[in-house]
Amino acid sequence: MMNYSLWRGTTPKPAAAAAAAAPSAADEGIAQLKKAQQLERSGAAADALRAYEAGLAHLLAALKEESDGRRRELLKKTIEANMSRAETLKKQRGKKPDHHDYTKVPRVQQRDSPGARHSDQHQQRARPLSSSSSGTSNAFADRILADVVDHSPGVTWDDISGLAEAKRTLQEAVILPQLRPDLYRGLRAPAKGVLLYGPPGTGKTMLAKAVASASSLTFFGVSPSTLTSKWVGEGEKMVRVLFEVANKMDQAVIFLDELDALLAKRGEGEHDASRRLVSEFLVRLDGIASMPGRVLVLGATNHPWDLDDAVLRRLPRRIHIPLPDKPARRAMLDKLIDGPKAGVTHALSSRDKDAVVDATTNFSMSELRTLAEEAAYRPLRALGATQILNVKSDDVRPVSLADFRGALADIKPVADAALLARYDEWTRDFGTRG
């Protein structure tokens, strides 16, 4: 088990008191895994598996947010060990996925989006699973279409502030080759594997969904929790069928989020379950080039230096998604407090907004949103519970620059100078600036 003191002994960053008092994802995960072990010892295998799944999901969430190298390594080892334990338990129970009598991949309802005029053609071209596919494979296909396909990403390029270079690169790699396949062939053939990397909250997932929406590609969203908690012990089969189903769609995006948690560098202490999962992914990534369908694999990671070298070779286009610059932060702030979904009034002048933008260097887009949300709460918090129950919405004071200054005392960026320098160094050696 994980060394509990490593987590209990840390000092949280300044934040609201309620948030500071809440147990961390790592604590929740540890508690669930301890519960799983107790249930397993008592013979309650089904309950133990559910506890393992819950514990792994919490630890994967903690891994996504953790930046300290030592703790990340500890989390990975704990996840791998418990994945292996849960897989063994599932095999001992003889648990198998339900068998369904499917003869072809169910048709996916495409969304109404730019380029959606091609969606009916994509559905009609979806090819049935091969006759040699087992009932198990068809059952997995059904589960993938239910749990992994995002039927309506609904994200457009305009929804993403800034990142003009990253958008251009992705349009060149994905959208234009689809529109003019006669031009993009041979040496101009687009890469079938793209890696998006950068600090947390910079819009990597949004970019992937925008690609799918703009090109009307079926969007398969896969995260470590999907593979290692929801289908614990069945990750290899899920990976194999995932790529097969995507190929049947003719044109699809497989988005692999938190890629470093799935395909980290392999080491001597690696567990069999993790090793087999990585090997299966590598085999499937190798097979993309020979697939008759147009399948693009988009990976996203906050820690590109943790990825296995074999994975990097299979994702030749590597695009750095940086923190937003001043114009992008200003555009995002305007959207947050002046946009149709703001839901608040404010008293910020243009100069006040510039002051907020200047104070949010090293903030990601998601952190800027959190900051705006915290500032928006402050007028309500000043009223107190009794007044909130009786006050008219029009009588709540507007959000002010002072509210943002107060929020800045609580909301801090994750990225620091050392981390940003590491991204720059990795980009010089392996990537492309987005």
UniProtKB/TrEMBL annotation:
Family to which the UniProt record says this protein belongs: Belongs to the AAA ATPase family.
UniProt biased composition (Basic and acidic residues): 114-123
Enzyme class of the recorded protein, top EC level: isomerase
Gene Ontology MF annotations: ATP binding; ATP hydrolysis activity; microtubule severing ATPase activity
Protein name per UniProt: microtubule-severing ATPase
Segments traversing the membrane: none
EC number: 5.6.1.1
Assigned GO CC terms: cytoplasm; microtubule
Region (Disordered): 85-136
Span of domain MIT: 22-99
Principal localisation: cytoplasm
Domain AAA+ ATPase positions: 190-325
